[in-house]
């Protein structure tokens, strides 16, 4: 049974697709059978998949009416299913959240991104209250400068809102941009941060797959 991980943020351009493409490739390379369900009409993850020889599958024939059924049907065939979503408030993100074990809310270090992340988190808490899913939700800082004052300010805003900001994220590095033109994993500093992020998720039992111990709910 696959663990289902979704990237959801009502605000666009925050790193949802970048995070999921990177996760998909790392997990596939580690030997997991990985499916990416791309519910965004921009098809960023599908384009990434088509660019190289990724070793993971992609499925993009979803809509609000079938996404829950598609996830249920495909879960037994994979170790990990990653679901990308469009950066808008929609009924689709409710269905995607309810289908997920873990929701990651990517967010850059800016006020508008933080406002979008907090709105998204509150919405997902409502989904949790109704459906008992997702089991876990974490805000992930993307495309940020860890040393910048704005990053500290945004982190404080999450603390004040009692929102779950994850301890690891993916800072602003060219390697993460290049992924979308090469179809490959980044090298150098970006590769190190990606590795640390994934190690942290595994250590916190938020990431399963064949190498992790987390069981899908
Ligand atoms: N850690 C990072 N370092 C550098 N660039 C990044 C990082 N994360 C994301 N980006 C860049 O930011 C831009 C937006 O990222 P991405 O497409 O992943 O966001 P998104 O939330 O999926 O957007 P959309 O809402 O349009 O689907 C892309 O150009 C991407 O390469
Ligand atoms: Mg996207």
TrEMBL record:
Domain CobQ/CobB/MinD/ParA nucleotide binding: 5-172
Name the record gives this protein: Plasmid segregation oscillating ATPase ParF
Pfam family, one: CbiA
Organism: Arboricoccus pini
Entry-linked InterPro entries: CobQ/CobB/MinD/ParA_Nub-bd_dom, DNA_Partitioning_ATPase, P-loop_NTPase
Domain of life: Bacteria
